[in-house]
Amino acid sequence: MKRKLPLSCFLILLLSAGSVSAQSPTAPALGFNVFVQGNANLINNLTQGPVAMGGDLTIGGNYDVSSTSNGTFTVAGIPTALVIGGKINFGSGILNVDNNGYVKLGDCTGSTVWYLDMTGHYAPMRITGCSDYAGTPRIDMQMTSYSIGVSPTANPVCQPSGIDFASAFLQMKSSASAMAALTDNSTITDAIGDVLSTRTGLPSAIKINLHSGTNVLNLNGADLNSISSFTYNHVPDAGHLLIVNVNTVNSFTWNVFASSGIDITNCPYVLFNFYNATSLTISGTAAIEGSVFAPSADITKDTNPAPLEGQVIGQSYHHAGGDDHYVVFGTSIPGCGGGIDVSASYDVNIDNQCLADNVFVFEGSATGIGPFTYDWNFGDGSAHAHTVDAVKSYTDTGTYNVTFTVTGSGGSHDAVTHTVHVSATPVSGFAVNDSIQVLTGNSFAFTAAGGTSAGCSYSWDFGDGTSGTGPDPVKSYSGVGGYIVTETVTSGSGCVMYAY
Q1: Considering only Cβ atoms within 10 Å of each terminal Cβ, which end of the chain, N or C, has fewer?
Q2: Alpha-carbon distance 81 to 70, whole Å?
Q3: pTM over the 0.90 mark
Q4: For strand 389-392 and strand 360-368, is the pairing parallel, antiparallel, or unpaired?
């Protein structure tokens, strides 16, 4: 960023929170534990991290979101643990958003957001499908609206999050295809250590010897399901990655194998790439040790009682069996758009501007293998720009996540997101007790329009060479004459208005 503005009690300015640079195939998922383009049906159990969906949420039972962590995604500085692009379908139960995580809801049809309880007092925020604060089904948050400074007009629940799910999944589908094209370079053995040269007709017990770098194991669905025991002779880590590409063709039920020689600390370095699945059902009784990357598939996990220790990325998600543990796959894969072939960055002239006359000038840059194509998502639903630099003026106040995506030769891509803030113009104008007074005992009492606005400062030029401060100054003049009085109102974010 070229200009950094001071933080005040009025302004919540994000310069880096929520910024994401695509460093892995899952980077467009913005650190969410569960990230789906369409709908999610959450029935029971929990997801330890944040959850985001571009479509509707169905609450089908008692469920917890963000029980361990809110992740890294924020809106106006507030950790946002549940993002719903569509509306809420209230089935049954209570969905708890833990760790003081906030909620963004794109379509509030059929929902009542409670910033205060039914008596008008501050209480933990809720979203219900009825006009009863205690009604069920509902979504429960832990904090009050006062404690995080939100209201129906200030960073409200009923407001799009700024996440472009379509763009994110376009990138991840491209990464899935690129990983699927990688050559199998893994070394797997049977239970007694004999190297297996084929990937078909596999024994039920498999061991893998991880070499340095990225290990790729390419299997079809039937051979994946023939494995019941999978042992790591070297634990996955930042220097020993494992990508399992699974060729399923359309619908597939995965009878998950038992893993050994690995624990949750190693799971950020394992990814199961169901690159051509359109429907993926997770079955069996064993835990999944790694992320499930199926950007074209509807994912169901309702009979498997074991944890899934990784991210879940798909078209939709039906969850009723076993917990989802918060593990983010955070490592780049060479040749898969993970920031290796292409790197994107941009600057903005001023990242916090006033609504009046705002003009954001974005200057993009890219390195890597061209020619490049460019895409600007301004975070407000407006048309995208497709030039290296872009100019944008917003019509409404708010916080906007601006994503710049660069695609290079062969489909390699990178994306970077920063947040800009459009501040409201302060209210100006004033009244005076009596604009004509006699010299003896004159006392002009000025009152700012609308009373004192939170976070605003007031300065006055009384037209006789003197000045004052505060919203309601009093002035006595020492000489007869006509005086032009000027009021200047400055908001906490630096927006200025004048009145005469």
Answers
A1: C
A2: 5
A3: no
A4: antiparallel
